Amino acid sequence: MDNPTPSMAAETQALREAYAALNRNDIPAFMKLFDPQIERIEHFDFPGGGSHHGLAAVTAHVAQGRGTWAEGSCEPQRFIVAGERVIAFIYVRVRLKTETERREGETVDVYTFRNGKVIQFHTFVDKRQALEWAGANTSEAN
């Protein structure tokens, strides 16, 4: 996968654990990494997309989204550290409760940390845009 810088190794490991929690539908375990003032920004074309502020609103948003899954997972493929941000390249493979076919694709989640907690969680569909926004080298998009 990757070798995060030592200063963000704990945060990167915590994100691995958070995705494992999300995949087993353990929303409280997924949310324990987030600051009470968390800001969640999701692509407006996504169901429920937009901005969500505060732990209660983000928890409700995550629970609602995860609640639509019949089965599936969001699997981190690699992580890149850019200063106070961790960029997670995610392979999504889910079947929604209202559908018979699986949905598959890639997204990029960018987490901004402060004092060991996520203060911003931003999802992108475009790798290059995510890297630019995070201040990382766009050659990592490949």
UniProtKB/TrEMBL annotation:
InterPro entries: NTF2-like_dom_sf, SnoaL-like. Residues 16-119 form the SnoaL-like domain. It comes from the Bacteria. Transmembrane segments: none annotated. This is SnoaL-like domain protein.
